[in-house]
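Progress report, Aim 2. The chain analyzed during this reporting quarter is listed below.
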Amino acid sequence: MTGFAQSLITIVLFVLILGVMVLIHELGHFVSARLARVRVLEFGIGFPPRAKVLGNRGETLYTLNWLPIGGFVKLEGEDGDEDGDPRSFTAQRLGTKLLILVAGVVMNVVLSFVIFTGIALGGDPTIGFRVGTVQPDSPASAAGLHSGDVIASINGRYRGAFEGSSLLDDLRASAGQTVQLGVEHPDGSKADVAVTLRSPAQIDQDHGALGIERPVATTTSGAIHYSVGDAVNVGAQRTVDALGLIVDGLGQLGDSIVNRPTEAPPVAGPVGIATQIGDVFWQLGPIITLYVAGILSANLAVVNILPFPPLDGGRMLVIVLKRVFGERISLRAERMTYLVGFVFLFAFLIWITGFDIVRSLGGGT
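Predicted structure tokens for the chain:
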């Protein structure tokens, strides 16, 4: 496959993943608003300009729009207009407004849980490594390993793709021992190969325990299976871990902005995320790409709950402040707050994207 075709598929994959996450988010707002009997004027798939009206059921217009990134929900009175409609968003109690706004975040957390649980139910993929070059007079050479062979297991143990360590770590820990390697050859055949690894005294920067160079992580034919109950527990734990990972990342981002504003931030923008998704998809396959989508959904949940306009958390903050201070916060001030927040977010996105482009061109790490 040509580089252009791979790039095109990567872009489509990125748009699809992001679109589904945003659409699920907006579906949370839509369902919660309908349950609260708030008037939903439009539910759009994609963003305007409008391409087609899919239907007009009751009071809600369902539309298909040209920009294929997620979707949107338009509620009666969501801009703060007081039109006297008892079913408008503005007329609702504080608790109802907050529930409608937080529903999108909840749906992204649920999506992460469903993805992680589904992967566990189907069996976690396992990760080994493909041999690059075999060093002469090495344990790998003595065992008959060749470039392109995949080391899939050690002593019958496979490493799950989502574990914190790898088979390379296991090899280093087994230095000096005789181990049984599960080898998958390029022609699809498999073999168990006994090999005595180098001793710790023989290992240095250029000589590893097995004696191979340029190993590349790759999925294997093995899988780690869970019972239904264990899969649910695994899905829940991975969701919690993903949320914690994002929170920790935000802390690192804040520290980077304050203390190292001219350095590349420890986060990626759209270009960086698309590149990473492409790398994972082409190197490790669709299941691990789906796992990355679960992490991104958790990312969207955490970012959206931040108390910064015009994010959901920022809108919730403004609504609470309006309840506390009343008419001292005018509709004009509220809208200006959202506008200023949007400008800052857009500028921040451009800033990160600049570093993404530099990385993609090989000018940074």
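The chain has a mean pLDDT of 91. Strands lie at 40-57, 60-75, 124-130, 133-134, 150-154, 178-184, 190-196, 212-213, 216-224. These observations will guide the mutagenesis work planned for the next reporting period.
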